[in-house]
Design goal:
Elements (H helix, E strand, L loop, with lengths): L1 H12 L2 H8 L17 H33 L1
Length: 74
């Protein structure tokens, strides 16, 4: 009796249709849709400030490196 039950369980696990349905099932992770009727101004402000800071920081860093290299060549 045990081999028959075991064979039944193995055949259920290896059933291609069951594997396909499992892989195409609903996702366990989903993206929450945000309401488009109002903006989140805190996120907008933080994003803009961060991008402006990074642009200024990296341009200044490149300028300082350029000045250091040009002064060491003279």
């Amino acid at each position: 009796m045990a081999p028959r039950v075991l064979l039944h369980l193995v055949s259920k696990l290896l059933d291609p249709a069951r594997l396909l349905n499992y892989s195409l099932g609903p996702s366990k992770f989903y993206i929450q849709l945000l309401p488009h009727d109002r903006s989140d101004w805190l996120k907008v402000g933080l994003t803009l400030r961060t991008s402006i800071f990074l642009w200024i920081y990296f341009v200044a860093l490149d300028l300082f490196i350029y000045l250091r290299v040009s002064n060491s060549l003279e």
